[in-house]
Structure prediction request, 597 residues.
Amino acid sequence: MITAAKHRTLRTMRERATLRGDAPRSAGQHYFIETEGLHSRLHFHNFYSTFWPQVEGSATAELRVYGADGRFAGSVERELVRFGSLFIEVGDLLAELGRNDTEGTIAMDVRPPAGLEAHLADLPAPEQVEFGSPFWMAYYDGEQNYMYVHAIDKLRGKIFGGDAVLRRVMGGHPPGGSTWRSWRLLDTEGITELQIVVVNHGTATGIATVGVYGADGAALWQRDLAFAPRELHRVVVPREALSTWSEHTEHARIGVDPLLTANGKPYVLLRYEDGPLSLHHG
Amino acid sequence: MPPPTEIEGFDPRFFRPCFFPMLRELGYETKVSLNNGLGAADPMSTEMTVSLSVFDDDGTNLGTRAHIAELSPGEIVKIAIEPLLDDSFAISPDGNLFGVLHVVPTDLAGKEFVTVPTNRLMAHARSSDDFIEFRKAASHVVTGVAYQTGPMNDARFGSTRTTVVQAPKVIVSDPVDTLFTLLNVSTSFDYATTVRMDFQVLGPNGEQFARSSVEVPPLTFRTVSMTAVLEAAGRLEEFRAVGGMGTFMGLAKNGTLVPLSMTRNKATGAIACDHTLPPVYYVSTWGGEARLKGAQRLEEMLFPATAEASTMVSA
Prediction:
């Protein structure tokens, strides 16, 4: 338990870290796929320029790659000039690391440019500041049909920047999520492909049931999954199951019970008839 | 300054609105997954009734259709919009349309103005995450995006209104264009502010490829084609030569716009859709004086008044 005195000490440490330009930072984390005709590309920009355009120095992005089994695969760094952006093909990144993963995740931390510390005095509540890097991942096929989403959750259990004590306290075991149902209703008629990607963004093992449910809550299809820390599963709903749903219900929704981290909603890949794939969170 | 605990003279039709663009000119139809997000266990849960209003490209209210749906606490429904556009609406055959689904507590429905507790209104706004689906039947395209539209552009909820859009999602190629879709919403049918956004299309090294602006009339949306903007600036081929990807940086000083990005394959009709992220996702305590100073710095750096801006270019 953190006592009031320790809490005050941590707030002071965090304020000092912020004002010296070393505020705690979290890293956005994304799924990638390099198989089944799909490719992935990171899209990110130097957000420090948006808030402090007068700072001329470059930010530094660290990209941490994890295999589908959750194991750390390696990292690279890239410079982000003022107002610059990164568009990194995951295939190129994997080749640079000597990896041949077809799926996995990438987390990105962005260190601020030198000189930022001189411009942070007017930030509200410096004892609560955290910098984040919720980048985008674009997925595309050979015809340039694109899908993209922002990072829905962070690399949990790891904080960048700040003091070692702050990193340890803020990066402790993240809380798990609860039973979750999508706020999107899918038309069941005409679905020919449905894949659900569930990512464990956290550092603990876990089990979850991923499923598709009718509007009345009844399960149309379910699968139980076990997760190692940071592991992901992409489940393909059998085509024969898809073809029967419209006989029972007009609409269906995706569910996960429980989410493995507080906001670790799944990625949903969806196709109707012979149309292009689409992707959304949850 | 936090908002007051109660808002007086509030039009209940904007208690929990869901605003959405209808991409009629691009040939897409619209379906909305709409929810009453607070379940029965929540002390602020309530029965809701749903109505639909539609506006044309000028923001003219074309009509309202009542009793589209009823939603119990925690209930979700999917609504196909175009089949609802009957004689209740004075719709012309051309032009885009802007819709709002009014999700209204049944105890407030039908009243002209009410006093609402701010925490009640915000609890429902925060629990809403409506999914707007764009569909093109002929090519079996079904895509969309989830977002919230709480009480915006209403001085009773906040004294300053600026919008900063930072989106490294500009993709242009032969078959692909990226459309930034900006929604100008509020809490009243009498809302009258046209919001102007200045924007830059930046290259990977921060190069300023094209500067332009767009004006979004009240209760409408505007869609800005990155291909058209770059073409108007005479730099489309140069932009493509460095990869055809970049960042949209936008600044509006007189209002809040809801920004959506749509990267569209013109041949197949596929669209990647997403909203952008507000500043607090990058800097957790961004706001107040720092926010105002930040917007001013951004304006001085990217949108100096003396610089010559190209004219507005829409898709």
Residues 4-170 of chain A form one domain. The first helix of chain A runs from residue 4 to 19. Chain A has two domains: 4-170, 180-281. The mean pLDDT of chain A is 95.
